[in-house]
Amino acid sequence: MTTDYSCLHQLASDLFKLPQSPAEWDRYRLTDEQVDFFQEEGYLAGVRILTDDQVETLRGELTEFFNPQHAGRELWYEYHTNESASPDTVLFHALGAWRLRPAFHDILWHPAFTVPASQLLEGAVRFWHDQLFCKPARHGGVVAWHQDYSYWTRTTPMAHLTCWIGLDDSRRDNGCLHYVPKSHRWPLLPITGLAGDMEAIREVLSPAQWEQFQKPVAIELKAGEASFHHPLLVHGSFENRTERPRRATVINVFRDGVQSQSNEPLLQGVPAVPTGETMDGQYFPLLYQPQ
């Protein structure tokens, strides 16, 4: 029987360690300038989250997931060996790794993530769900332009945050993230699809938005570095044209107090949280409470 790590709301291994003093916690804090940049541009990139050893441990667990018959496969919220419609443009995409393996579980409580997340959310950090986005060498598929909150309107208010963590060096030629700066000030856009068509978003943009859209920023990161972005920030990533994979894990969180806006299950296999009730409990644990 595979362990379901969603039942454990503390570290399951010694891969990460929690600080033992206020000074140790403070070393993970963003500067005022970094917080100001996030608020102005809608993102913050280049934050070191993982050591090389931690990256290797996560890569090891990730390798198991590529085999569809891996232990614990019944625990995924979603599992797609290829989210793309074409075998020539593979995009491995899965939600729920935190339930299956200790390293992907424990990274949620890692202070290098939780402390900056709390600053950017301006409050206590509660877990929403994780994701894996992996593009194999030479033909990795795209992640089409989108706003994260367009997929999350079953929760309210919009007090969410995404942290994208590279498990490989992420560059233009292997499909790094691209952000449209300041697009977090746009209203919510219609969903135009997550995989396959990088041009579809043009159909839902105003002329002014389209002009701004022409100046995306490539977010190049070293393995173990992260970028944070606002739930309305438009972002996407192009294909992998290199001989090496581009693997990433994503942690999505919200400020404590966010409520369900649906009587249907918020994630596959998770008991429904009635509309208007606060999201908490086994599947939405509190990760960090600022002092």
Q: Can you walk through the features of this model?
A:
InterPro entries: Phytyl_CoA_dOase-like. Keywords: Dioxygenase, Oxidoreductase. This is Phytanoyl-CoA dioxygenase (PhyH). Its cofactor is Fe(2+). It comes from Anatilimnocola aggregata. This protein has 291 residues and is of the alpha+beta class. The protein has helices at residues 22-26, 32-41, 52-65, 102-106, 111-121, 207-213; strands at residues 43-48, 78-80, 92-95, 125-135, 143-146, 155-156, 160-166, 177-179, 217-219, 225-229, 235-237, 246-255, 259-260, 286-288. It has a single domain, classed as q2cbj1_9rhob like domain (Jelly Rolls), CATH 2.60.120. The mean pLDDT is 95. It has six helices and 14 strands. The chain is globular and about 50 Å long. The longest helix is centred in the N-terminal third of the chain and has 14 residues, at 52-65. Strands 1, 2, 3, 4, 7, 10, 12 and 14 form an eight-stranded antiparallel beta sheet that branches. A four-stranded antiparallel beta sheet has the order 5-11-8-9, with no helix packed on it.
How are the SSEs placed, and which strands pair?
Blueprint: H1 22-26, H2 32-41, E1 43-48, H3 52-65, E2 78-80, E3 92-95, H4 102-106, H5 111-121, E4 125-135, E5 143-146, E6 155-156, E7 160-166, E8 177-179, H6 207-213, E9 217-219, E10 225-229, E11 235-237, E12 246-255, E13 259-260, E14 286-288
Antiparallel strand pairs: 1-10, 2-3, 3-4, 4-12, 4-14, 5-11, 6-13, 7-10, 7-12, 8-9, 8-11
